[in-house]
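Consider today's protein:

***
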Amino acid sequence: MQVSVTLWGNLRRFAPQGAGAMTLQVADDATVEALAVQMGAQHDVYAAALNGKVVPLSARLSPGDRVFLFDHLHGG
């Protein structure tokens, strides 16, 4: 399934050419944490929002979700 991902702060280094937003293909049973692992950013993600609401990294993703990932400086 595809999800939209927006990266804040230093997390942009995990995106192609430092893009702030992108669309990714993830497994059907993926969580926010699995997404971070897929990107290689699992040790750098401090907080996440899913469709505008703060969620735990264990939150399950659905097709078309908008995921926002925050690093330590931007996470709160």
Observations:
- Residues 11 and 71 are 6 Å apart (CA to CA).
- The helical segments are 32-39.
- Residues 32-39 form the longest helix (8 residues).
